[in-house]
């Protein structure tokens, strides 16, 4: 028989349910704290579109050796698995690479550039702020490239610091490394070899160094970058490339 008095009795809390709620609250708090630490603001918006993956390459490109902990860095062991995941994900149709880098490890930067150039997804690169040194082949690695009007690209020959063994084999190694970078840039952009080598060896623009500084439109005029533009133009171009690729199928 139904007993009305049961309605007035206080209901016992299920300790398991309370524990689940507490765990979820703690997870939410941890996520917000991490968001604040990484992004400077809580509740960062999540990209609802799954067909475009955005990858940022910022600061110094860190390679086989750990960089200065006081500097911002992009670790190639993070970017390479991310690009592999993008290639394996059928929902992702394109990649937007945003660059603001001072350069860094040559081997790591070139490896990332080769991987970007070899994936089947459409890739658009956007230079914001700067893309110097090994950042140049990273900027040219995509299907199409943009540079902001005030962004810069520093083009110079390969160099190193620290102990160098002064033998012919060392210089031959540098020459081969430089040739790898030069060949990649020529292959992935519209610049001619003679023009690129002239920019690299210019003595008029950099203090105590050789090379050239290209600002916005200058990088387009010499053939390194395809177009001057920002985020809006880069996204529009990437969506257009994805649509053209789908129409071919």
SSE string, helices as H and strands as E: HHEEHEHEHEEHHEHEH
Task: Report, as a whole number of angstroms, the end-to-end distance.
Answer: 69 Å
Biggest β-sheet strands, sense, barrel: 6 strands, parallel
Helix content: 40-55%
User: Would you report the number of β strands?
Assistant: 8
Name given to the CATH architecture: Alpha-Beta Complex
Q: Which fold does the CATH topology refer to?
A: 2-enoyl-CoA Hydratase, Chain A, domain 1
Can you tell me about this structure?
Pfam families: CLP_protease. Residues 1-10, 17-29 have a biased composition (Basic and acidic residues). GO terms for molecular function: ATP-dependent peptidase activity; serine-type endopeptidase activity. Helices cover 45% and strands 20% of the residues. The chain is an alpha/beta fold and 249 residues long. The chain has a single domain (51-248), classed as 2-enoyl-CoA Hydratase, Chain A, domain 1 (Alpha-Beta Complex), CATH 3.90.226.10. The strands form 2 sheets. It has a 6-stranded parallel sheet. The longest helix is centred in the N-terminal third of the chain and has 25 residues, at 15-39. The relative contact order is 0.11.
């Amino acid at each position: 028989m139904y007993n009305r008095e049961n309605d007035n009795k206080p209901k016992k809390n299920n300790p398991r349910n309370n524990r689940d709620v507490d765990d979820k609250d703690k997870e939410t708090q941890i996520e917000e704290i991490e968001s604040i630490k990484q992004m400077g603001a809580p509740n960062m918006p999540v990209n609802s579109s799954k067909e475009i993956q955005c990858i940022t390459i910022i600061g110094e490109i860190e390679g086989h050796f750990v960089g200065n902990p006081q500097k911002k860095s992009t670790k190639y062991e993070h970017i390479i698995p991310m690009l592999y995941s993008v290639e394996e994900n059928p929902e992702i149709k394109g990649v937007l690479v945003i660059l603001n880098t001072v350069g860094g490890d040559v081997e790591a930067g070139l490896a990332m550039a080769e991987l970007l150039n070899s994936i089947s997804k459409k890739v658009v690169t956007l230079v914001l702020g700067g893309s110097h040194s090994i950042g140049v082949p990273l900027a040219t690695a995509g299907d199409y490239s943009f540079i902001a009007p005030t962004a810069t690209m520093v083009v110079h020959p390969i160099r190193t610091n620290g102990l160098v063994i002064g033998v012919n084999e060392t210089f031959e190694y540098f020459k081969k490394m430089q040739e790898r970078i030069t060949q990649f840039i020529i292959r992935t952009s519209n610049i001619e070899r003679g023009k690129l080598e002239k920019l690299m060896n210019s003595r008029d623009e950099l203090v105590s160094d050789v090379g050239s500084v290209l600002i916005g439109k200058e990088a387009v005029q010499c053939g390194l970058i395809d177009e001057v533009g920002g985020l809006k133009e880069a996204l529009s171009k990437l969506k257009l490339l994805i649509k053209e690729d789908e129409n071919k199928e």
